[in-house]
Write a structure and sequence with these properties.
Largest sheet: 7 strands, mixed
CATH topology of the largest domain: Aspartate Aminotransferase, domain 2
Shape: globular
CATH superfamily of the largest domain: Type I PLP-dependent aspartate aminotransferase-like (Major domain)
Order of helices and strands: EHHEHEHEHEHEHEEHHHEEHEEEH
Mean pLDDT: 96
Distance between the termini: 59 Å
Radius of gyration: 21 Å
CATH architecture of the largest domain: 3-Layer(aba) Sandwich
Strand content: 15-25%
Helix content: 25-40%
Low-confidence stretches: none
Structural class: alpha/beta
């Protein structure tokens, strides 16, 4: 039998074709690594921990520390190996065949890819072309069919803007399904809907350690929602999903938050500097951002990509996504990396 006759489908997963270059301004990573003294503390604790035993399946110590950090109860938390696993848990637990899911477009591509694994109907709400704002009238039209899930990446990736602000919450508070708000960039934007988790029992808030905590390699994400939903979704989490390294690193990183958040202020200042400099250039449209990345549009997109790659810089090409023709996204690096990017950009656009 040919293997093609027995596979599930011709589904293609979420894979990003980005060259592995020295200056990585393509993946929205934090440009500042964890300080060595924090790494050494993690490694010391890791060396003292038995490797032949399974980790704590409930990650109790990490969950307690994170709940104290957030000012919520541990019962409101579900932890995963990066936010990607948490999204899978949500989809596996909540979505049935035939369910409708409302997804603003363009947004984080992983959502659509994971939804394609399910026999659900994706209702796409295209953002306004000019400023990538969300049309709430169009959104509310989808409510009449009682969709199961509404996904809002806030701030939105790759556009960098808010899709929803606190004043808009009343416009979706009557949504009959679950509302997932992805706050991966909360520490840069400053806006969170965390205070509403008790008020709205259908509200799901997704966070990650990958960005503000400089820990993309640790693979640690978490969901905040009401305890009943956590208790239910926990049935869809694989046992021992968080290894000992992720748990120990997460605990210790939380202890050093005051040290780590200093870099966030630096990144935000650099973002503003880069944005303001880009705004002075011709032949380019630069979109405002409340994150650690900037989306921009230029007819010279291919030249910019080529010149950056020749100089060891990788950017993210979003030009094939809806409403994003000729659009590139640059993550904020350190000052030296940002200066080189601006120099190249200026040369190409001059």
């Amino acid at each position: 039998m040919d293997w093609k006759d027995i596979i599930k489908s011709d589904y293609k997963g979420y894979k990003v074709d980005i060259p592995d270059l020295p200056i990585k301004l393509s993946r929205n990573e934090n440009p500042y690594d964890i300080p060595l003294y924090i790494k050494e503390e993690v490694l010391k604790k890791l060396a003292e921990t038995p490797w032949n035993r399974y980790p704590d399946g409930s990650a109790k110590k990490l969950k307690n520390k994170l709940s104290n950090f957030l000012g919520i109860n541990p019962e409101n938390l579900l932890l995963g190996t990066g936010s990607g696993e948490v999204i899978q848990i949500i989809f596996n637990g909540l979505l049935r065949e035939g369910d409708e899911v409302v997804l603003p477009i363009p947004t984080f591509p992983l959502y659509e890819k994971l939804l394609q694994q399910k026999k659900v109907r994706i209702i796409k709400i295209y953002l306004n072309e000019k400023d990538f704002s969300l049309d709430f009238e169009k959104l509310r039209e989808t409510f009449k069919n009682n969709p199961k899930l509404l996904i809002l990446t806030n701030p939105n990736n790759p556009t960098g803007n808010f899709l929803i602000k606190e004043r808009d919450l009343e416009k979706i508070s009557d949504f009959s399904g679950f509302i997932l708000i992805d706050e991966a960039y909360f520490e840069f934007s400053g806006l969170t809907f965390l205070p509403y988790i008790n008020q709205l029992p259908n509200l799901l808030i997704l966070r990650t350690f990958s960005k503000a905590f400089s820990s993309a390699g640790v693979r640690l994400g978490y969901l905040i929602t009401n305890s009943k939903v956590v208790e239910y979704l926990d049935n869809f989490r694989l046992p021992y999903n968080l290894n000992i390294f992720s748990q120990i690193a997460g605990e210790i990183l939380l202890s050093y938050w005051d040290h780590l958040k200093e870099k966030i202020d630096i990144i935000k200042r650099e973002k503003e500097r880069v944005y303001n400099k880009m705004k002075t250039m011709d032949k380019i449209i630069v979109y405002p951002s409340v994150t650690n990345f900037i989306l921009f549009r230029s007819d010279k997109k291919d030249e910019i990509l080529k010149k950056c790659e020749e100089n060891g810089i990788s950017l993210r090409d979003f030009s094939k996504e809806p409403h994003l023709e000729n659009c590139l996204r640059v993550s904020i690096g350190d000052k030296k990396e940002n200066d080189l990017f601006l120099k190249i950009l200026s040369e190409v656009l001059s």
